[in-house]
Amino acid sequence: MRDHPRDAVPPVKGAEGDAVPPVTPPSPTSPTDQPCPEHWTGRATNRYQWALAALGAACLALGIDLAVEAAWWGGLAPLVMSVVGCLAAGLLILFGTLAFVQVKVKVDDDALEVRCGHAGLPRRRIPLRDVIEADHAPSVTPRHWGGWGYRWRPEKGTAVIVRRGEGVVLRLGDGRVFTVTVDDAEAAVRVIRSRLAATPGA
What are the distances in angstroms from CA 97 to CA 13, 56, 58, 85, 124? Predict the structure, then answer.
């Protein structure tokens, strides 16, 4: 009787008595494991916000028209209140909509940065050293946060919401939570987690 080599895997008999070749365990470094990029950028847009921006522009134009064309002798106080009201409403609507027509998110070695609107304002930068966990939220809706824009809810934390859909949720070391809607949020979470895993003491 011959001895089998110590490291050899004995064949397994199938239902018909044929030898079934042993299954080779997968390599720890699978080719499907792709390294995370050094920097990640993404964005989210909301085209419907342009309709609200048009409403703000209309209010602004109405206020200017009242200031220029209206008969001031008919009553100064009511006219001033109308002009100021239209101008203020127009400016508020324009800023509130154009600032959140889109959001840009960038993840680098040190922080996650959020820039809103075409001007990049408002802006928030969260150092990764303050992040203890990053999660992917498959469905974030304005209804859950009370509308679009920069939101705050006592039980949820703060968020930048420009559209319904997926987003990134960061849990900070001081107990606060920050959420931002962005396309391909799952990739952003993978990059952030890789940064956290590479941080000493994480």
Answer: 69, 9, 14, 18, 18
Q: Tokens 């009242």 sit at which residue? A: 66
Token output for 36: 């995370």
- Which residues are bridge partners to 134 per DSSP? 170
Count of residues in the chain: 202
What's the pTM?
A: 0.65
Which segments within the chain are labelled E, that is strand? 12-13, 19-20, 40-45, 102-107, 111-116, 123-127, 131-140, 149-153, 157-161, 165-172, 177-181
Mean predicted confidence (pLDDT) in 4-13? 48
Instruction: Report the pLDDT value the prediction gives residue 102, as an integer from 0 to 100.
Output: 86
Q: Has residue 50 got a pLDDT over 50?
A: yes
Residue 137: pLDDT band with limits 50, 70, 90:
very high
57, 90 contact by CB (below 8 A) = yes
Both tokens of residue 75? Answer: 């009553």
Give the residue carrying structure tokens 């900070």. Answer: 172
